[in-house]
Write a structure and sequence with these properties.
Helix content is 24%, strand content 19%. The chain is built from 9 helices and 15 strands. The strands form 3 sheets. The protein has a 7-stranded mixed β-sheet with strand order 3-4-5-6-7-8-9, covered by helices on one side. Strands 2-15-14-12-11-10 form a 6-stranded mixed β-sheet, with helices on one face. β10 and β11 form a beta hairpin. It is globular. 53% of the residues are buried.
Amino acid sequence: MTQQIPTTARTAFDAAADRARGDGLHVLAPDLAYRRLGIVNVTFHGAPMAGDRNWVLIDAGVFGSGSLIRSAAEKRFGKGARPAAIVLTHAHFDHVGVLETLAEEWDCPVYAHPLEGPYLTGQAAYPPADPSVGGGMMALLSPLYPRSPVDVSARLKDLPADGSVPAMPGWRWIHTPGHCPGHVSFWRETDRCLIAGDAFVTTAQESAYSVAVQAPELHGPPMYFTIDWDAARESVQALAQLRPDIAVTGPGPALRGPEFTLSLKELARDFDRVARPPGGKYVERPATVEDGAYRQP
């Protein structure tokens, strides 16, 4: 059984101010906010009331979350405001649940790493989940989670090779594979802000109780869908070297401050002991093309 890295890091938002505003968002910076959608977060980049085509949605939630995403977007950016783009950390089901619907409705491009292309153009399914790697209801149910690809091929674009992020000036994308082949994280140096996706998470995603309670603690990527543990370790180490001050992850509360930075450093240092499962389908042998892990674009 793996362990967590407990942390005394404070949450990266003002809970009282967020409740008073009543839009369901947690504000992390003047141009950055996120909304929790059950088991996952979606992030919004852009200034309040930025208007049409002046903001970006990062990831697209779970199936059935479209109305919540639309509502949050309209309250933050203005009625009828559409994004300049949807950018993806990766294409697992809880990050693309309403992607096809929103991309069509908003008539906007979708950006992702080329290695996620097969899962976004209807060509390939992700490898089977591994329920043996971590205790908890979420892990036990993981074989039932959707693996089939979505198809946004008409709108899909590769993230720019120069590392920039479309419509997000000052940000760059970082390839952080391991959880899946084309996983990326987004980084802004000026305020040391990180959108980490599932490269690491701030709750035990294998446990339904932990997901519900959202007590802050650092973990490696969700174990049941992670297909290359050596790459996952290297990705966490690369992110820890950035020394982020603020991070929002796929599941879990956003965290900030020196305590968080230190906890992430400890997770990177002790990854094999606290994050890597002792056994499992992909622990000793990463998923391959034959497992459905990826196809070269």
